[in-house]
Amino acid sequence: PEAKKALGERFPEFAEGGILVWLGATGKKVLPAGVFAFLYEQLREHSDLPVHFAAGTADAGLLHAYPDWIRERTVIWQESLPETAAFFAHFALFVSGDTGPMHLAAALGLPTLTIFIDSNLAQYGYHDEKKHFALQWQDTPECRQGINRAIARLLA
Questions:
Q1: Which domains does the chain have, with CATH numbers?
Q2: CB 75 within 8 A of CB 116
Q3: Phi, psi of 59 (to 5 degrees)
Q4: How many angstroms separate the CA atoms of 116 and 82, rounded?
Q5: What is the mean pLDDT of the chain?
């Protein structure tokens, strides 16, 4: 609680919480920019909570592939693990690709939506169809409908 309060004072833009979309990932786990644009649209459709974008310092090089409006809203997170945990605790929902921070968010008890490219969902994903959804990305209407259903459930 103390770390969360201190972090809220240092980063007032996150004090209100909302939804965190983590852009970072490595190798083949990086989601296409269009996926994040779609996720943002769906999150806004289902909730009035503010949507924040963040990525780790190692992921900053990925931002050039995203539209200006995403880059302008993205915070490059450079804090320690305890501060990262306190940061994540501000949010009502954590959305990301298959990335280490997703495991931290799940361990903290945050609801998560994870979109996988080709990782093994059973091995690496958290999926209980209540608080955690892990879905395999395919650029199909069925996949988009599945993501929409997961977001609706997580934000109900």
A1: 2-154 (3.40.50.2000)
A2: no
A3: -100, -5
A4: 26
A5: 90
Neighbours of 92 (CB within 10 A): 14
CA-nearest of 94, 93, 84, 15 to 56 is 84
Pairing verdict, β 51-56 and 74-77: parallel
Helix (H, G, I), strand (E, B) or coil at 31: coil
pTM of structure: 0.91
Amino acid letter for position 117: I
Q: What is the pLDDT of residues 57-102, one digit of tens each?
A: 998 988 998 999 999 999 999 999 988 999 999 899 999 987 889 9
Banded pLDDT at 1 (limits 50, 70, 90): low
Q: How far is CA 9 from the centre of its chain?
A: 22
Q: Which two tokens stand for residue 68?
A: 């200006």
In whole angstroms, how far apart are CA 68 and each of 33, 71, 72, 92? 11, 5, 6, 25
42 pLDDT more than 80: yes
CA distance 140 to 120: 19
pLDDT reading at 50 higher than 90:
yes
